[in-house]
């Protein structure tokens, strides 16, 4: 009896595993789930824990053993997606940035987006000019510590907080001046809303950068935003395509293509090369999901997308979830008391690793975080009832639901635009597509507020497998990238030839297969005794009888003769 009980317990343990999800405030949520549980179950569990209804903008990210990042697919089993062994570690992040984050209905959702953008600002994803950077940092300071108090905030107090990878004393003084004079009396929720409004107007808002190279071998960052597809090089935005202009996304190996129709029926094709095939596939899937989310009117319009024009090759993928317009329409249906948000004291943040350029800086207090303490409702049956999403209030019913001011900016700046005073080069800790080889690292000299720096990999906040000493060095000499450009272009030519040869071979195999099927069908028509009306009618036609006696019968006799000759040789031996 005891052995049966023990064996049953072991089987139950084998069917369950632990999963840890790191939230945006750097707290951890740990749970035990069944081995066959799907991603949607875990995501609903987290949103239930946070009492989050406006959840369609968020997703769960994980890293495989090859250091390739992925978004957890909610329709598939978690265990089948994870290539590592349990326990699993993942993180909750903003997957689809709201087009107008300040208009999100609930404060808890605005707060989570605020945390994501604050993380983006620190790691260099949300890059902006110095004037905008000072204002954004001042809003964070006001939200974290409140009004300026000479008794509590001595001279140089703004330097105790890490808003960017590194910033100058001049910028710190400007941040303190704004905090002291312009933001007095603002409540934390007001400062966060103002921060969101300011951040949403930046060219790099919503950018989740994918490092690639163009056809000339120059490094570039590709990104999908609420407003369209963006390519960033240096401190400029070199391409911007609205979602209604993008017609197709395609990849093959490490090559990514984007097809678009611009004004006056101008068709363009942009081609970029990802570090690895896995990175390219991840880039393609992100593009497919973002295009479906922001472009379509209804989720019923979502179709399965193929990465190739040919049916016998390529990957197939389908976005599962609501689209942005449906999400916005559900916003007005929220009718509940807003969940309580408690502000905590100063704590160190794991999302802000130490700066490691030259001598290590002494550790200083980071920006204050708030822990969301929300009572968990008993039972999980309510997860089904709360499965609907209720994000933002509809701000317009116009094109692409872009807020009017942001839409005007997009219309007037479709060409090359300067995004900041410095080159866009986020730390590798935030890149969703890690560079496979050292030679593929971006050789862009980075300076933030007048001082070059590189950042340690964000090991704890965005990894499911250990990153053994992986650190990005984005202060590499740009000369090395130019030297490797020729070799990369030659390599790409060889890859293109190989792809062409493989395509021809695939076409040849398919043709042979079709001919074989036709031969089998011909044999059935001529030699079988199937008494089927349409077969009988075909056999009785003059054309078929002529073909049968003049071509098929001689061919059959020739094959029979050859088979007898081969059989005789085998018997004689």
From TrEMBL:
Assigned keywords, A-Z: Cell junction, Membrane, Phosphoprotein, Transmembrane, Transmembrane helix
Family annotation (CDD domains): FERM_B-lobe, FERM_F1_FRMD3
Localization of this protein: Cell junction, Adherens junction
Domain of life: Eukaryota
Record field: transmembrane: 500-525
Residue ranges constituting the FERM domain according to the UniProt record: 17-298
GO molecular function terms noted in the UniProt entry: cytoskeletal protein binding
Family matches, as SMART domains: B41 (SM00295), FA (SM01195), FERM_C (SM01196)
InterPro entries in alphabetical order: Band_41_domain, Ez/rad/moesin-like, FA, FERM/acyl-CoA-bd_prot_sf, FERM_2, FERM_central, FERM_CS, FERM_domain
Alphabetized SUPFAM superfamilies for the sequence: PH domain-like (SSF50729), Second domain of FERM (SSF47031), Ubiquitin-like (SSF54236)
Keyword Transmembrane helix recorded: yes
Span list, region Disordered: 385-412, 455-488
One GO cellular component term noted in the UniProt record for this chain: adherens junction
GO BP field: actomyosin structure organization
Role summary: May be involved in regulation of cell migration. May regulate cell-matrix interactions via its interaction with ITGB5 and modifying ITGB5 cytoplasmic tail interactions such as with FERMT2 and TLN1. May regulate ROCK1 kinase activity possibly involved in regulation of actin stress fiber formation.
UniProt-recorded name of the protein: FERM domain-containing protein 5
Organism (species): Pundamilia nyererei
Name of the gene this protein is made from: frmd5
